[in-house]
Write a structure and sequence with these properties.
The complex is a heterodimer. Chain A is mainly β. Helix content of chain A is 0%, strand content 43%. Chain A contains no helices and 9 strands. Chain A is globular. In chain A, 38% of the residues are buried. By secondary structure, chain B is mainly beta. Chain B contains no helices and 11 strands. Chain B has strands spanning 3-6, 10-12, 18-25, 34-39, 45-51, 58-60, 68-73, 78-83, 92-99, 110-113, 117-121. In chain B, strands 2, 4, 5, 6, 9, 10 and 11 form a 7-stranded mixed beta sheet that branches. In chain B, 40% of the residues are buried. The chains are: A mainly beta, B mainly beta. Chain A binds chain B through residues 3, 34-36, 38, 45-48, 51-52, 55, 57, 89, 91-93, 97-105, and chain B through 35, 37, 44-47, 50, 59, 61-62, 95, 97, 100, 102-103, 105, 107-116.
Chain lengths: 111, 123
């Protein structure tokens, strides 16, 4: 089971919007709505930002939104802020023997 | 509030074993499966396996089959991950992470994560 494919880096200026893609297959992202997104600051544990493709947990800013089309899920951060600078990972349930697969990770830089 | 508190950092020699603990609180321990995920320095997240805290059943990533053992102690709401035959490539931060109750499957992606345990393998 290969990792889901994400761009290595994405950058934007404060106030702008950016989108991070997460491409898998019909056995994971494309086959189920079991996709989550995590934010990870250096030296910290991942934090859940989006679950079930597009839902935000309580306490997560509405500047974060998720969507999916076919085998690709996306995370959009609108109104980019300095505190959004971090690594972001997608994850998906998979029907293979590897029950959970993560994306390769994307470093978001706020210019 | 949900908390997952892991044991402290470990330094091991190649060929040794390490056992990491993860104590859960703030929810019914036996109601949600627990993932174990690791992250090598500067690398991404890698799924290792999952345990059902209720019955103790497990499923491991093929890469770790034969080297990893996940167990639980319901009396202390603690899950354990033991990795044997350690090599330098096993140097990583190891996380426990609870399956999110938002999903209608038992083995969906996690919501809460432990703080991580750094395991360093060095001679």
């Amino acid at each position: 089971q290969s990792a889901l494919t994400q761009p290595a880096s994405v950058s934007g200026s404060p106030g702008q919007s950016i989108t991070i893609s997460c491409t898998g297959t019909s056995s994971d992202v494309g086959g189920y709505n079991y996709v989550s997104w995590y934010q990870q600051h250096p030296g910290k544990a991942p934090k859940l930002m989006i679950y079930e493709v597009s839902n935000r947990p309580s306490g997560v800013s509405n500047r974060f939104s998720g969507s999916k089309s076919g085998n690709t899920a996306s995370l959009t951060i609108s109104g980019l802020q300095a505190e959004d600078e971090a690594d972001y990972y997608c994850s998906s349930y998979t029907s293979s023997s590897t029950l959970l697969v993560f994306g390769t990770g994307t470093k978001v830089t706020v210019l | 509030q949900v908390q997952l508190v892991q044991s402290g950092a470990e330094v091991k020699k190649p060929g040794a074993s390490v056992k990491v603990s993860c104590k859960a609180s703030g929810y019914t321990f036996t109601s949600y499966y627990m993932h174990w995920v690791r992250q090598a320095p500067g690398q991404g997240l890698e799924w290792m396996g999952i345990i059902n805290p209720s019955g103790g059943s497990t499923s491991y990533a093929q890469k770790f089959q034969g080297r990893v053992t996940m167990t639980r102690d319901t009396s202390t709401s603690t899950v354990y991950m033991e990795l044997s035959s350690l090599r330098s490539e096993d140097t990583a931060v190891y996380y426990c992470a609870r399956v999110s109750p938002h999903y209608d499957i038992l083995t969906g992606p996690p919501d809460y994560w432990g703080q991580g345990t750094l395991v360093t393998v060095s001679s």
